[in-house]
Design a protein that fits this description.
The structure is a single chain. It is built from four helices and no strands. With 64 residues, the chain is an all-alpha fold.
């Protein structure tokens, strides 16, 4: 029942039950699911790239 509610609202069960303060939209959740299905090598390459982009974006925001 809770799963159906979360799906209808397009939120995670953790967010629905208050275990997470971060709401992930449907496209982000799909990307994370796809990422989990990749090999560890591919996953590490993608996460390294994402982390570098996030670091750069945070740095730009800090100097605005």
């Amino acid at each position: 029942m809770a799963v159906k509610i979360a799906q209808a609202l397009e939120v995670s069960l953790d967010f629905l039950t208050g275990l997470s303060d971060v709401e992930l939209d449907k496209s982000t959740t799909e990307i994370m699911t796809d990422l989990q299905l990749l090999s560890d090598t591919d996953k590490n390459h993608i996460l390294t790239t994402i982390n570098a982009l996030l670091r750069d974006a945070k740095t730009r925001q800090a100097y605005k």
